[in-house]
C-alpha cells in the first residue's frame, strides 16, 4: 500500500514483514542478508528488527525495501495484524526441524489470506537447512503446501548464508510484479479484477478494502 | 474510500459481501455495500453532479478565501490558482460516502456556516496581524528548501489551502467525523506528493529535495492545526486515554519476568537506560529515540543486535512503567494525520507500529499472555496487590515517574484553564466597565435632560377671571366696609398674581421646549396624589375660620402630627423646609384650575392668556411671590366659605395635587367658580399666617 501511494515518485517503497514462530531464525535471516550486502557496522550499532535496504530494480528503478521483524512469541500472535497491515510482502519463516513452527506458518497463511487476500506476496521460508539431519518437514511437502496457497517456497540457512539473498530478491521481484499488475489493473479495471477475486475465495471482505487506498494502515490501533 | 479500522474477525455471509451493483466483486460496508470500483464510479458521478449543482454555494462560501489567505499566510501574493484550487477540496469532502445526507445538512447549515466562517475569518485576520513566530520559522525553512521558486509558491498555496480547509471543517460542520477529516488530509498528502513528483515546476529538484518538500508540507500543516486536530472534542480519544492509563496503573505489578524480557531490573546501568526510555516516551515524536534507548538497553542485555522478539516485550515493559499520558490521543493524531505513505513505512513507522502493538497487548493482556494462571492474574489485579508492589524502590521510582508525567500534563491543563479563566475575568471586567459606562451614560443623559428642563415647580397662576372676580368681590366688600386690612392685601396679591401668571406662562413655554414637562407633572402627582381626592370635598367644606386654624396646624403639622395620616406627615416633613413650599402646595391645590404644573397650567394659560400681563420676573421671585398669591386666595376664601372644620381643610390643602383638581375643574367645573372662591376663602386665613412670619 505504501508503495502504491508513492509509486508516482521514482523511489518505490516496499514493506515486508517477517512472520513466524519464535526462534525460527527470522532475525538471523535479516541479519545475514543485511550484513552480507551491506555495511555490517552500520547494522550492528542499531538493531535488527527494522531494516531498510535500497535495491536497484532490473528496470533501473530504485526501490527501498523495509523489512519489519516481528516478535514471534505466541502471546504476541494477536498483534500480527498491526504489523502486516499495509505490507506488500510477507516472509513466513519456519524451522525445518520443528513441526510446530510449520503449523504456525500455516495459521499465519490462513490469517493473511483472510485479511489481505491477494494484496500481499507470500514466501514461505524453511530455515536452518544446516540441520538437514534433523529435518522434520520434507521439502516437497512444504513446496506443495505453498503452491496450494499461492505462495513461493524457499529454503535457506541463515547460519551458513545459503539462499538468504535469494529470498529477498525473490520477494522484491514478487512485490514488483504485484505492483505492476495492480497498475495494469487500474487501467482496464474490470476483467483482470474479476480473475483476481475468483482465484482467491478466502479473501472475502478484505478485497474491497485493500483495493482502495492505503488507509488500512491507519487503523493499526483499532484492534 | 474510507477504510479505517475494521475488526478483522468480522465475517459476513457471502451474499452480503458481494457488491450491490452485482458486478461480481466483493463490496464492503464502508463503501455502502459496493465494491471499490463501483463505489468510486458512483462517487465520481456524484461529484460531477455536485460540481454542476453545488458550485454556486461553494463559491459563495469561499468568497472569504482570498481575504483569509492574505491574512493567515502573510507572505504570498495571491494568484488566480488559489481560487481554483480552493474549490476542489470541498468537493473532496462532498464525495465522501454519505454525500447526499451531508449535502442536505450542508444546505441547512449554510447560513450558520457563513456566520461561523466570518467569525473564523476574523480570527484568522487577527492571527495575521500578530505575526506568528512559528509561521515565520516556516517561512525561513521554506526559503531554505532547495526547490524552484515556482514550486515553493505552489507548496505554500497548498499548505494554506489545507490549512484553511481544516479550519473550515472544524468550524462549520454540525456533525463531524474524524475519519472524514482524516481522509481529506490524507488525500491532500497524496495530491501534494503527486504534485511534487510530477509537476513541471519541481522538475529540476532532486529526490531528496522533493521528499523534504513533502515533509515540510506535512510539518507545517500539522503544527499549525495541532490544536484542532489533536484529540478533537467529537472523538472519544480522551476516554480511551483514561482507560489505558487506568489499566496500566492496575498492571503496575508486572515485572520484566512476566514479559520474558531480558531487562535486568537490578542492574543500575540498565535501570538508567529504562528511565531514559521512559522519559523519552513522553512525547510521541520521541518514540524513535525511546526505541533506540530500548535497543541500546537490549544490546547490553543480550550482547548483540536485538531482535523483535526481545524488543517488543521491552517496549511493552517500558510503556507499562512509564504510563504515558494521553496515549490514545497522541496515537490517533498520528495515525489520522501523518503522511501515511512516508512516515508509516519508515523506521518511525515501525516503532510506532510497535508502540501500537504494545498498547494493544496491554489492553488485552490476561494471565495467559503473562504466563501466569488466571487466578493469580485476578489476584494481582486487585487494587491492594497493586499497592503492595510500590513498596520496592524500583516501583516507587516508577510511580513517581508516572506521577511526574501526570503532573506536567496537568500543569499544562491548568495553564490552559488559567488562560481561559483570565480571558473570562477580563471579559467580565470589560463587561463591568461597560455596565458602569452604560450607567454613567444613562445618568448623564438623564442629567442633561434634567438640566435642559429642570423640575421647577412653578408658581400658581390665578386665572385672570378669578382675579377679576376676586377684585370685584373685594371691591364690593371694601365698599361694604367689611374688607379691612386683609382685602387690601388680597388685592395687591391678585395684582401680583396676574404678573405671576405671565411669568408662569413663559416658564411653561420653556418647559415645553425640554422634556421635563412630563417629569415634573409626574413627580408632583406622585408626591401629591394621595391627597388630591381628599381635597375636593375639603375645599368644599372649607371655612375661613377653620382654615385659618388649619393652616396653622399644617404649617405646624410637623410637630403635633395632627394630620393623622402618614402620607400627610411625610409631606409635612418635606414641606418643613420652607413655608414657601407649603404655600405653594396650598396654592396648587386651592387653585386647581389654574395650577402651574406643566400641562394643565399650559392649558390654563392658553385660556387666560389675554388677561395675564406679560411681566417677566426673575426666576428666584416666585417663591417670594407665592405668599401673595395665597393672599388672594385667602381673601376670596374668607369671602365665601366658612363651614368646614379646620383640621379637615388644613391637612389636604398643602398636598393638593394640581393635576387632578385642575382637570376636574377645567373640564367640568369652570363654570362653578364659586367653589374656587370658596377655597380661596378658606385659604385666606392661611395667607395671613404665612405673612405673619414675614
Automatic annotation (TrEMBL), chain A:
Q: Which domain of life is it from?
A: Eukaryota
Q: Does the keyword Lipoprotein apply?
A: yes
Which of UniProt's keywords are assigned here?
GTP-binding, Lipoprotein, Membrane, Nucleotide-binding, Prenylation, Protein transport, Transport
Task: State the CDD domains in the record.
Answer: Rab21
GO CC terms: endomembrane system
Does the keyword Nucleotide-binding feature in the UniProt annotation?
Answer: yes
Known Gene3D superfamilies for this protein?
P-loop containing nucleotide triphosphate hydrolases
Xref: SMART domains? RAB, RAN, RAS, RHO
Q: What is its main location?
A: membrane
Q: What family does this chain come from, according to its entry?
A: Belongs to the small GTPase superfamily. Rab family.
* Full protein name: Ras-related protein Rab-21
Source species of the chain = Drosophila persimilis
Automatic annotation (TrEMBL), chain B:
- Which keywords does the record carry? Metal-binding, Zinc, Zinc-finger
- GO CC entries: apical part of cell; cytosol; endocytic vesicle
Q: Where is this region: Disordered?
A: 55-81
Q: Per the UniProt entry, what are the Gene Ontology biological process annotations, in alphabetical order? A: eye-antennal disc development; imaginal disc-derived wing vein specification; negative regulation of multicellular organism growth; positive regulation of protein ubiquitination; regulation of Rab protein signal transduction; vesicle-mediated transport
Q: Where is the VPS9 domain?
A: 238-371
Against Pfam families, the record matches this protein to:
DUF5601 (PF18151), VPS9 (PF02204), zf-A20 (PF01754)
Annotated SUPFAM superfamilies:
Glucocorticoid receptor-like (DNA-binding domain), VPS9 domain
InterPro entries according to UniProt: DUF5601, VPS9, Vps9-like, VPS9_dom_sf, Znf_A20
Q: Does the keyword Metal-binding apply?
A: yes
- Domain A20-type, chain residue ranges per copy: 13-47
A GO MF label = ubiquitin protein ligase activity
Q: What is this protein called?
A: GL16172
**Gene symbol?**
Dper\GL16172
Amino acid at each position: 500500500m505504501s508503495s502504491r501511494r508513492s509509486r508516482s515518485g521514482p523511489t518505490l517503497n516496499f514493506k515486508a514483514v517477517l512472520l513466524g514462530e519464535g526462534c525460527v531464525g527470522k532475525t538471523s535471516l535479516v541479519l545475514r542478508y543485511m550484513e552480507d550486502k551491506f555495511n555490517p557496522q552500520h547494522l550492528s550499532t542499531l538493531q535488527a528488527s527494522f531494516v531498510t535496504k535500497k535495491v536497484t530494480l532490473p528496470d533501473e528503478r530504485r526501490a527501498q525495501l523495509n523489512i519489519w521483524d516481528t516478535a514471534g512469541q505466541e502471546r504476541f500472535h494477536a498483534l500480527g495484524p498491526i504489523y502486516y497491515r499495509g505490507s506488500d510482502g510477507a516472509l513466513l519463516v519456519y524451522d525445518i526441524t520443528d513441526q510446530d513452527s510449520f503449523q504456525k506458518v500455516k495459521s499465519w497463511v490462513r490469517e493473511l489470506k483472510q485479511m489481505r487476500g491477494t494484496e500481499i506476496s507470500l514466501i514461505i521460508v524453511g530455515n536452518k537447512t544446516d540441520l538437514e539431519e534433523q529435518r522434520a518437514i520434507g521439502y516437497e511437502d512444504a513446496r506443495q503446501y505453498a503452491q496450494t496457497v499461492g505462495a513461493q517456497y524457499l529454503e535457506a540457512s541463515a547460519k551458513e548464508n545459503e539462499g538468504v539473498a535469494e529470498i529477498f530478491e525473490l520477494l522484491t521481484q514478487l512485490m514488483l510484479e504485484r505492483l505492476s499488475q495492480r497498475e495494469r489493473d487500474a487501467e482496464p479495471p474490470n476483467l483482470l479484477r474479476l480473475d483476481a477475486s475468483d482465484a482467491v475465495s478466502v479473501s472475502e471482505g478484505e478485497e474491497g478494502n485493500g483495493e482502495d487506498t492505503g488507509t488500512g494502515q491507519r487503523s493499526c490501533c483499532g484492534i | 474510500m474510507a477504510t479505517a479500522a475494521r475488526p478483522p474477525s468480522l465475517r459476513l455471509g457471502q451474499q452480503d459481501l458481494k457488491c450491490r451493483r452485482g458486478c461480481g466483486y466483493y463490496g464492503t460496508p464502508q463503501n455502502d455495500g459496493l465494491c471499490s470500483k463501483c463505489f468510486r464510479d458512483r462517487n465520481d458521478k456524484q461529484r460531477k453532479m455536485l460540481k454542476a449543482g453545488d458550485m454556486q454555494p461553494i463559491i459563495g462560501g469561499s468568497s472569504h478565501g482570498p481575504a483569509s489567505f492574505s491574512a493567515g499566510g502573510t507572505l504570498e501574493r495571491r494568484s488566480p490558482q488559489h481560487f481554483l484550487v480552493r474549490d476542489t477540496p470541498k468537493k473532496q469532502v462532498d464525495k465522501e460516502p454519505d454525500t447526499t445526507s451531508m449535502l442536505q445538512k450542508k444546505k441547512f447549515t449554510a447560513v450558520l456556516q457563513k456566520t461561523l466562517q466570518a467569525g473564523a475569518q476574523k480570527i484568522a485576520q487577527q492571527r495575521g496581524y500578530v505575526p506568528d513566530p512559528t509561521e515565520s520559522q516556516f517561512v525561513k525553512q521554506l526559503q531554505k528548501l532547495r526547490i524552484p521558486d515556482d514550486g515553493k509558491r505552489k507548496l505554500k498555496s497548498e499548505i494554506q489551502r489545507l490549512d484553511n480547509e481544516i479550519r473550515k471543517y472544524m468550524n462549520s460542520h454540525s456533525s463531524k467525523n474524524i475519519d472524514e477529516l482524516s481522509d481529506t488530509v490524507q488525500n491532500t498528502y497524496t495530491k501534494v506528493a503527486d504534485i511534487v513528483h510530477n509537476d513541471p515546476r519541481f522538475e529540476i529538484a532532486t529526490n531528496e529535495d522533493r521528499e523534504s518538500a513533502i515533509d515540510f508540507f506535512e510539518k507545517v500543516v500539522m503544527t499549525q492545526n495541532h490544536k484542532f486536530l489533536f484529540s478533537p472534542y467529537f472523538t472519544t480519544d480522551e476516554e480511551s486515554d483514561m482507560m489505558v492509563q487506568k489499566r496500566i496503573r492496575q498492571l503496575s505489578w508486572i515485572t520484566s519476568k512476566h514479559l520474558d524480557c531480558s531487562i535486568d531490573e537490578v542492574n543500575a546501568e540498565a535501570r538508567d537506560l529504562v528511565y531514559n526510555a521512559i522519559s523519552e516516551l513522553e512525547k510521541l515524536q520521541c518514540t524513535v529515540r525511546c526505541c533506540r534507548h530500548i535497543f541500546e538497553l537490549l544490546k547490553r542485555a543480550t550482547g548483540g543486535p536485538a531482535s523483535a522478539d526481545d524488543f517488543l516485550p521491552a517496549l511493552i515493559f517500558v510503556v507499562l512503567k512509564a504510563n504515558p499520558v494521553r496515549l490514545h490521543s497522541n496515537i490517533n493524531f498520528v495515525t489520522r494525520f501523518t503522511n501515511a505513505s512516508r512516515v508509516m513505512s519508515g523506521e518511525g513507522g515501525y516503532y510506532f507500529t510497535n508502540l501500537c502493538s504494545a498498547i494493544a497487548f496491554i489492553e488485552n493482556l490476561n494471565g495467559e499472555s503473562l504466563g501466569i494462571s488466571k487466578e493469580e492474574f485476578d489476584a494481582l489485579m486487585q487494587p491492594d496487590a497493586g499497592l503492595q508492589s510500590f513498596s520496592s524502590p524500583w516501583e516507587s521510582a516508577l510511580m513517581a515517574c508516572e506521577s511526574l508525567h501526570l503532573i506536567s500534563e496537568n500543569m499544562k491543563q491548568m495553564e490552559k484553564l488559567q488562560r481561559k479563566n483570565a480571558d473570562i475575568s477580563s471579559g467580565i471586567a470589560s463587561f463591568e466597565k461597560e455596565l458602569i459606562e452604560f450607567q454613567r451614560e444613562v445618568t448623564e443623559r438623564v442629567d442633561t435632560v434634567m438640566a435642559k428642563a429642570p423640575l421647577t415647580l412653578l408658581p400658581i397662576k390665578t386665572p385672570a377671571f378669578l382675579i377679576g372676580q376676586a377684585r370685584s368681590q373685594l371691591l364690593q366688600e371694601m365698599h361694604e366696609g367689611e374688607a379691612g386690612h386683609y382685602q387690601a392685601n388680597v388685592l395687591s396679591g391678585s395684582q401680583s398674581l396676574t404678573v405671576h401668571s405671565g411669568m408662569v406662562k413663559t416658564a411653561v413655554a420653556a418647559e415645553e421646549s425640554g422634556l421635563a414637562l412630563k417629569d415634573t407633572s409626574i413627580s408632583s402627582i406622585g408626591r401629591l396624589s394621595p391627597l388630591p381626592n381628599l381635597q375636593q370635598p375639603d375645599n368644599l367644606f372649607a371655612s375661613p375660620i377653620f382654615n385659618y386654624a388649619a393652616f396653622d396646624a399644617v404649617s405646624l403639622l410637623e410637630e403635633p402630627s395632627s394630620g393623622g395620616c402618614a402620607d400627610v406627615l411625610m409631606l409635612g416633613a418635606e414641606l418643613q423646609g420652607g413655608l414657601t413650599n407649603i404655600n405653594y402646595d396650598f396654592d396648587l391645590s386651592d387653585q386647581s384650575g389654574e395650577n402651574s404644573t406643566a400641562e394643565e397650567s399650559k392649558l390654563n394659560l392658553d385660556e387666560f392668556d389675554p388677561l395675564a400681563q406679560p411681566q417677566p420676573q426673575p426666576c428666584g421671585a416666585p417663591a417670594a411671590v407665592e405668599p401673595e398669591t395665597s393672599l388672594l386666595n385667602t381673601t376670596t376664601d374668607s369671602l365665601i366659605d366658612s363651614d368646614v372644620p379646620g383640621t379637615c381643610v388644613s391637612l389636604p390643602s398643602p398636598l393638593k395635587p394640581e393635576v387632578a383638581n385642575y382637570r376636574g375643574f377645567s373640564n367640568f367645573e369652570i363654570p362653578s367658580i364659586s367653589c374656587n372662591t370658596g377655597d380661596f376663602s378658606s385659604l385666606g386665613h392661611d395667607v395671613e399666617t404665612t405673612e405673619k412670619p414675614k
